[in-house]
Amino acid sequence: MVKKIGILLLVGAIAWGGTQQQKGETPPNKIKEIELLGDQFHYYPDKLMAVLEGNAQAHRGSDYIYAKKLIIYFDKNRKSKKFVAVGNVRFKITIDPKDIYKGTTSKLTYWIKKGDILLEGPSKVVNIVTNEELSGTYIKLNKFTKQAEVKSNGKKPIRIILKVE
Questions:
Q1: Which residues are 63's β-sheet partners?
Q2: How confident is the model at residue 16 (pLDDT cuts 50, 70, 90)?
Q3: Which side of the chain, N or C, has fewer Cβ within a 10 Å radius?
């Protein structure tokens, strides 16, 4: 059972979500809190990082990241600048109402200011609105430019499913 850590981490303008807004729901980019859950929590102020281990979860609005371990890096103003999720990673990230992604990977790294999301290891990302899909061992997405790069380790080919009209 996941033990709720007794903190809500206020992170200012963390832009991991986009502008999704369903009826009665606050858009993720307006939500200033991230709820962190896990079996263990360690904060290292000298290293400007926090580590959640064991059933680690981060929730912001309807977006989430689940992993065995979640590392959050902060800048000198203590605003989050990078997330690294490792081990059986599952996620849902909203970029805009037409770009809502769910996926799985071994390792997810998200650079907040640049908008880069890097998936390493066997990875799959599905746009749950359009049902388009990317699979590979290296997937890099940018939430601002919407560019994508997909590579394979050579053992299995990449897979891309696009909807065309």
A1: 60
A2: very low
A3: C
Read off the pTM. Answer: 0.77
Range of the domain at 50: 4-161
Rounded Cα gap, residues 48 and 58, in angstroms: 18
Tens digits of residue pLDDT in 65-111: 999 999 999 999 988 899 999 999 999 988 888 889 999 999 999 99
Rounded distance between C-alpha atoms, residue 85 and residue 137, angstroms: 16
CATH code for position 88: 2.60.450.10
Q: Which two tokens stand for residue 101?
A: 């992604």
Burial of 14 (0-12, 13-18, 19+ CB in 10 A): buried
> What digits encode the pLDDT tens for the residues 27-72?
555 556 888 899 999 999 999 999 999 999 999 888 999 999 999 9
- The count of structural domains within the chain is 1
Tell me the two tokens of residue 52. 């959640």
3-state secondary structure of 95: strand
Query: Within a 13 Å sphere around the CA of 159, how many CA atoms are in the beta-carbon half?
Result: 10
